[in-house]
Structure formats: structure tokens, C-alpha cells
TrEMBL record:
The keyword Transmembrane is assigned to this record: yes
Entry protein name: Phosphatase PAP2 family protein
TM region(s), chain numbering: 24-51, 58-77, 130-148, 154-176
Every Phosphatidic acid phosphatase type 2/haloperoxidase domain range: 58-169
Natural source organism: Lacrimispora amygdalina
Keywords noted in UniProt: Membrane, Transmembrane, Transmembrane helix
Amino acid sequence: MFQNMILFEENILLWIQSNLRSDIITPFMIFITNLGNSGAIWIVLSLGLLIPKKTRKIGVMSLCALFLSVIIDNVILKNLIARTRPCDVIEGLTCLIQRPTDFSFPSGHTGSSFAAAVILFLGLPKKYSFTAIILAALIGFSRLYVGVHYLSDVIGGAVIGTMIAVLVYWIGINWVRKETIE
């Protein structure tokens, strides 16, 4: 069964390469994937939220979620699981960006994107925060498109990032309530 899942994921990446990659879409997807490098877009957005007092707590929560995502995804899980990148093992799969030097599972780009985006979604008006979820999903998909992650890496990153965000948001909201009661 595990072998069937691996074959399924390999076929997804090869299908994306054969059917979705194009000269028009590729520069956009490379741009999107680069937005997630080191969580840069999310750090900038979070720091921006620190400026107005009204959004400061959401900015702090987002930065905390990003920090936890880096520790859990990139420091602990990637090294514990040590999954080889698909572009290194799938015959015929072309990597569209410089090959990352770390392991594949979970997707750190996707994990940090969902960690920050879900905090923004939970704490900001939906007319703004829904865009963050779309960007997080695009960054996750871009990792498949450029050939550096399996589908399960991206799903794993999204789930872990979401769980981190919900936990950080819950702690942040309950800490704030407790602080205002005392």
C-alpha cells in the first residue's frame, strides 16, 4: 500500500510537469514559491501588523506561529523523517528552481505559510485574511509545480501549520482574556 502511495505521488508530479507547466505559468509559480523562501512574505506581513495597535496581537501571534513552524517542520521533522526530494529520485522530473539542500517532508514553505495565514484568517476581517489563505495554498501548490515536494509533503506542511496556528491563536486569545480579567 505504501508503495502505491509513492507511485501515486510520483505520477501527480509527472502529470503536473506534463500538463500544467507552461512558459506563461512557470515564471508566476517561481515567483510565488520564492515568496515563501524563509517565510519572507509572512514575516513582512506580520511585522506590518505590529505597527497598528489594533492588529499588534495578531502580528505577535503570527510571528510566534512562524517560529514554531520553523522549529517543528525544518529543524525536527525534516531531519527525523529524512525524506529525499522528488526531483532527486523521480526519473524524468525536472526541478525548476535551485534544488533545496534539506529534506522533503514536511514542506517548510507550506507549513510556515499556513501557520501565518491561519492566524491572519482567525484574527483579521475575512475580506483581508481570505487572501492570505489563497496565497498559502498557492505557495503550497507551487512547491509541487517546481518539483521539490511530494503532495504528502505539502499536505503535511499545511496540516502542521494549521495546527500550530490554531494552538498559538488559542493560547494568545486565552492569555489576552486572562490578562484583561486580572
